[in-house]
Write a structure and sequence with these properties.
Length: 199
């Protein structure tokens, strides 16, 4: 089941909350979606790819991650960024989505693909309360203040479990500095024989 969610904050951020699979028993009394308490105790906030390159919450990689999570009893909040802001506002959007989730769930993770992978790492670097962060095909930098390589140092210092997944044939994102720094810090990296889009 999916519900539309408006994320509070100064920007127009809309999301889809995909609820974990349930046997249906007691769903009404427990509440579900944005109107009541969540059924699951954990959620992953999913950051979409670059909004100026048609990135949105319906991206097939985000939907695939959401499907895998909900089948395992974890909700997934896929959101769209507000108006384009060169990575600054988009990072704020991710933080607002995490805050929305923290108010409703015991455990919150953060995931992102491509531009969204970098947004996830940067947003997570100031959130010691996250259960984990995973970046799929992140690029090294969005702007001078949104640096995935620097964010890895902060994540390690905070003790937030972190994973970087990348395609070894990716010629779209500048992923190698992220993977190199992750290796130096002992952050888990997972290579795939794939291009940027994992197709």
């Amino acid at each position: 089941m999916s519900d539309t969610v408006l994320i509070p904050g100064g920007r127009d951020v809309r999301a889809t909350l995909d609820s974990a699979a349930s046997d249906g028993a007691g769903a009404e009394s427990e509440g579900e979606g944005s109107g009541g308490a969540p059924r699951a105790d954990a959620v992953v906030v999913a950051c979409p790819p670059h909004p100026q390159q048609r990135g949105h919450r319906g991206d097939e990689r985000l939907v695939a991650v959401s499907d895998a999570l909900t089948e395992r009893g974890v909700d997934c909040l896929r959101f769209d960024y507000g108006d384009w802001d060169e990575g600054y506002g988009e990072t704020t959007d991710a933080d607002a989505a995490v805050e929305w989730a923290r108010e409703r769930y015991d455990r919150v993770g953060l995931f992102g693909f491509s531009f969204g992978g970098t947004v996830a790492l940067v947003a997570a670097a100031s959130r010691p309360d996250l259960a984990a962060v995973c970046a799929l095909a992140p690029t090294a930098r969005l702007n001078p203040d949104a640096d995935a390589v620097a964010a890895l140092d902060d994540l390690v210092a905070l003790g937030v479990p972190t994973r970087v997944i990348y395609g070894t044939r990716d010629s779209t994102a500048e992923w190698s500095p992220v993977v190199e720094r992750a290796g130096e810090l002992g952050v888990e990296t997972v290579p795939f024989e794939s291009d940027h889009f994992f197709v």
